Structures are given as structure tokens and as C-alpha cells.
Amino acid sequence: MSHHLSGPNLRSPLDDARLDMTDLFAFTVPGDRTVLIMNVNPIAPTGGQEFHPDAVYRINVDTDGDNQADVAFSFVFSPPEGGRQTVTVYRATGDQARSHEAAGQEIFTDAPVSFDTEAMAAESGPYKLFAGFRSDPFFADLDGIVAKFQWTGVDWGADKNVFGIVLEMPGTELGTAPTIGVWGRVSLRQNGQLKSVDRGAHPSLTAYFNAEDVKDAYNAGEPADDWATYSEPWAAVLEHFGDYDRPAAEQALRTVLPDILRYDRSKPAAYPNGRTLTDDVTSARLTMLTAGKVPTDHIGPHTDLLPGFPYLGTPHTS
């Protein structure tokens, strides 16, 4: 699947679905505005769950191509009370953007979280924000993939929900250069220490490439270290799975390592140049893994997506 269940043994980090990042999206909308979306909590149930109040959910943006965060948005949620929860959002730059802590300018304070089908949006200056319960835009024939490409025609994500974080802003808030790099991170405060428990940008990497005993280390790591740490073992996966030779494997991996989603905003968003909610990332990853021998799983995008903010579809309630 995409980035769902990114902890060891196809489980959520620390066995807590609230900490499990599922997908990351970056695209532009009319008005020269950039949209960043990070979804968490795979198979989110209707009612009875919320964003983790001891976590820092974070979207990092590299504006100069050095694989380091130059702008970072941190989302910190209040303890739920009476079926309500709020979120405070921080915008950090420079050295503060490279820390996992929530720091910098407070751009939203105690904005409401949506727990039902109504999408409550908040606005602050040039920013629009949504956080809450939404349908999962991820689509794939997961049963067919597990069955060694014997396709079932069933979209695993058709009836699933997630918790989404959607932030829309003028493109200039992310620098004047057209190209940015984006990745998400979820950190949890335990015993006074903030620990990164999940991170990623490109879809369907952890499940295919990382051995179970390195997934925790990957989730705690920094993208700037990815090529040195993972290019060799991941190239071996492509050699085994897709019959790549080593130069071809390394060339293919340059698209996804470091694990930062590059987006040239002067061009239409289409994965791997950014990612829209309808991009067929499952077919893209199958094509990569099999060197084109398996080009698609024959599943198309969801039809419940909204044409405007917050873009994610209304959650399924039955």
C-alpha cells in the first residue's frame, strides 16, 4: 500500500494508528496557491478517535535543493474534550525548521478539528487550514498485489477513511523558486523527549524496500542521509525483484532517494513532480519495481474528491 502501516511487520508505528502517516500530496490551485496535504490514521473509524495530543505532525519544505528543511509547518493538537479537539499551527524557518520541535510563528491558534462529515475550514492571513476526518484518496488492488499480480478489480481504499491535514497558501510562502521538496513527519513526545516515529514523502517505499528491522530507524532518520544509507540495499531489492543491473537500479532510485517529493510548480503537478489526489502512484511503483513488466493494477482514482478546499472527499459513514 502507499505509506500506510509504515511500522515494522505492517503495523502502525508504536501500534498507534494516530501516528501512522498514510500519504503526502503537493499541488497548486488557481490563484498561484500551493496546497500541502498530509493524511494519517489508516482505516480511521467513525467516531472514537482523534489526532494524538502528544504528537507533532509536521510538513517540511526544502526551498533550495539541499535536502534540508527551510520552511516547516508543525501541527499540535489539544487533548480531546467532550468530542472536540483543536489544532495550533506553527511556521518555522531557518534553524527552527530543521528541528522536529514545534516552533516559529503561530499562524493558527486553537482552530477546530472536524470529526464528522462537515469540513470546517479556518483562515488566518493568507492561509487556509483543515484538519479532521475525511475519505482516504488512496486507490489500489492490494489483494491482487499480495496474490502476485492476480488482479481482483477491487479497490482496497474505496471505503476507507483517514484523518487529513490540509494547508493552502500563496506560493510565495514557500519561496520564490519554482521547485520545492516536501516530506512529512510524525513525532511523539515520550518521557520528555520528542522522537520521530514516522516520516516519508514518496508512496509505497517502506513496504517494498525496507527490511522489518530497519523500519524504525528509517522513520527516525533524515532525508539528507537517505542515499548513503539506503541506496545499496534498495538497489539490491530492484536487482532481485525487477532484474535490474546495478547502474539501472541506482538510476531508478534517484527518483525516490532522498525520500523528498520534488515539485516544480511551474509545471503541472503529476507524480513524481508533486502529487495530486488522482495520481496513480500504485501503478508508478509497480512499474518501477518490475522494470515495466507490471505497469498497472487497473484501479482508477476515487470519484468523491471535492473540487475545492479541502479537496479530500466526505468520509464514509457506513
TrEMBL record:
<dbReference type="InterPro" id="IPR025566">
    <property type="entry name" value="DUF4331"/>
</dbReference>
<dbReference type="Pfam" id="PF14224">
    <property type="entry name" value="DUF4331"/>
</dbReference>
<protein>
    <submittedName>
        <fullName>DUF4331 domain-containing protein</fullName>
    </submittedName>
</protein>
